[in-house]
Amino acid sequence: MSVLPPLLNRAEPRPRTASWSETEAWERVVNLICEGSFPHCCAMVIPGDLQGEAAVATAKLLLCESRRGGDGCGSCASWTEQGHPDLLACGEPMKPPAIAECRGVIQAAAYRPVVSDGRVVVVYSADRMLLPAANSLLKLAEEPPDGVRLLLMVEDEELLLPTLRSRSWVISLPSHREDEGLTPPRTPHEWARWIEDNSASEVDSLAGILSSWASWEARRGDFERAAVLERLRLVIQAKRLSRTMALDLIVLVLKEGFVFEHSFGDLW
Ligand SMILES: [Zn+2]
């Protein structure tokens, strides 16, 4: 069981981190916490590399006596670089917890809080958990002990176990991103918009987009996905596809999950 994700130990703040905290969705989170009406189980939709700071920012408000955070109350004063005695976390951004880790936090959540009037349980990469781990959290999501708030950090709410999703209040952070366009679309809606925006794009410009997506995936640690994007870019450029074919291939591989290396020769 980790108390604080390693991401928080980074010495330098990352340049695009401010975006999620400037959204209306975050403002709503702050207001709900302030009013004391924040739900017991919340699924926060946010890219993996921002999950650490968003979870901690939420916990700082939830664990504060006045719910405002950073006011020097006993609970706020208990934050250290290692975390907070009433913050329990399992998994890491980009790395879902195994069932043993989940059980560990479930057990710990049953104890009385140390300095606050409640506890916060954060589950990172909750959308990537294996079924047994996700199932183990159902009871906590359904009936958390008094004062316990469960935060499920997810990149894609559609991938969250439906029985967990149905027990969660889902909020998307951020609703728009500073680096929008440099990251691959995620949802069908984003894909539809991307296809529309790029219907007249030249092959070189599509290749440039693939390249920036590959860098983004590599930065967030998904080297496998980055490699797929790079191979796709090479194929599009080397085969001199028309822009329509290039666009179709991108959608087929990235949106539909088509494994293009196996059948490429048969198709083109
Ligand atoms: Zn405080």
Task: Please provide a written account of the structure.
- With about 270 residues, the chain is of the alpha/beta class.
- It has 2 domains: about 5-170, Rossmann fold (3-Layer(aba) Sandwich), CATH 3.40.50; about 190-265, no CATH class.
- It is built from 11 helices and 5 strands.
- It has a 5-stranded parallel sheet with strand order 2-3-4-1-5, sandwiched between helices.
- Helix 8 runs antiparallel to helix 9.
- The longest helix has 17 residues, at about 205-220.
Question: Which properties best describe this structure?
Answer:
268 residues, alpha/beta, Rossmann fold, 2 domains, five-stranded parallel β-sheet, 11 helices, binds zinc ion
Q: What layout of secondary structure does this protein have?
A:
Elements: H1 24-35, E1 41-45, H2 48-63, E2 87-90, H3 99-109, E3 119-123, H4 131-136, H5 138-142, E4 148-154, H6 162-165, E5 169-172, H7 188-197, H8 203-219, H9 223-238, H10 243-255, H11 260-267
Parallel strand pairs: 1-4, 1-5, 2-3, 3-4
The site of zinc ion has 7 residues, from loops.
Q: Give the class from helix and strand content and strand pairing.
A: alpha/beta
Beta content comes to 5-15%
Total strands: 5
Distinct small molecules bound, one entry per kind: zinc ion
Care to give the gist of this entry?
The chain has 268 residues and is α/β, with parallel strands linked by helices. It has two domains: 6-172, Rossmann fold (3-Layer(aba) Sandwich), CATH 3.40.50.300; 188-267, no CATH class.
